[in-house]
Write a structure and sequence with these properties.
The strands form 4 sheets. The protein has a two-stranded antiparallel ribbon with strand order 1-8. Strands 2-3 form a two-stranded antiparallel sheet. The chain has a two-stranded antiparallel ribbon with strand order 4-5. Helix 2 packs across helix 3, helix 6 runs parallel beside helix 11 and helix 7 runs antiparallel to helix 11. By secondary structure, the chain is of the alpha+beta class. The protein has 2 domains: 178 residues, no CATH class; 81 residues, no CATH class. The longest helix has 21 residues. It binds iron/sulfur cluster (SF4) (2 copies). The site of one iron/sulfur cluster (SF4) has 13 residues, from loops.
Amino acid sequence: MSIEDLEKIKEVIPDQSPPYQSPVVPVELDLDSEIQFHCHKNISCFNACCKNIDITLTPYDIVRLKRRLNMTSSQWVNQFTVPFPMDAHEMPGLKLITKPGSSACVFLTEQGCSVYEDRPVACRYYALGSMGVRKQGDSKVEDIYFVVKEDHCKGHDEPRKLTVREYLEEQGIFEYDENNRHWRDIVLKKRSSGPTIGKPTSRSLQLFDMCSYDIDNFRAFFNSEGFDQVFDLSEQEKKSLSDDENKLFQFSCRFLKQVLFGELSIPVKSDAREKRLAEREKHAKAGDRMNPRTVID
Ligand code: SF4
Ligand code: SF4
């Protein structure tokens, strides 16, 4: 299910009068709600859902898949994704590519998914949809769930019943949601604040792109002299983040919140601004092009 489908949920829920065009069943579920669904290798529709995909990728999908294929994050993104704007301010998003001349997933084989253990979270969720909602006057984001019922999917006719929580556990979704949580907060906050925050600078968008989808480049930036000139982290903190890619990704989200929303959670050196201006002046005099990864406003 695409982000656009999830957006449609918002329209479907308030007005529940038929006929529905959306595959989303307009009943709000929580973790303890019961669903009826079973997908397995012997089902008649095996692979049908992977033959016509529209999969928006999350940062943790990319971390898992680039590790699996033994590639760097930028190699993986260049080979397997197409960019799209996630909002009117062109916040960068990525979709998984399909096979040439087809709408089938690039990882689909006759035997099924060739990256099954590391498949994206959108594939794991199907046939459920989820949406983070912030109720009026509440700062907490609450997850709500929906069944997504498409004609080709026979898993809904199977007799197995289980709770939403059991389904999410079975599909390994909690790990993905936990790793993507801070990133999703950023996307939600950016969307819900809309024009009050204004259009991000192109440098902010470049940083969003790097922090979200290019952990290997973020690591290079994190270990650069430019980073140390600005941010005040102990050697021990740096090492513990460098050694753990998941922790480093969480840190990159803190960094993004600092850049996009001014949430100062990473200590900044007191003389950082002066040093940065002097460095810029030096480069300007030498006629160098600035590397966006070394410039932080
Ligand atoms: S990644 Fe795997 S599960 Fe997801 S659409 Fe592709 S083949 Fe299907
Ligand atoms: S049951 Fe649904 S999710 Fe499973 S293979 Fe068939 S179409 Fe895909």
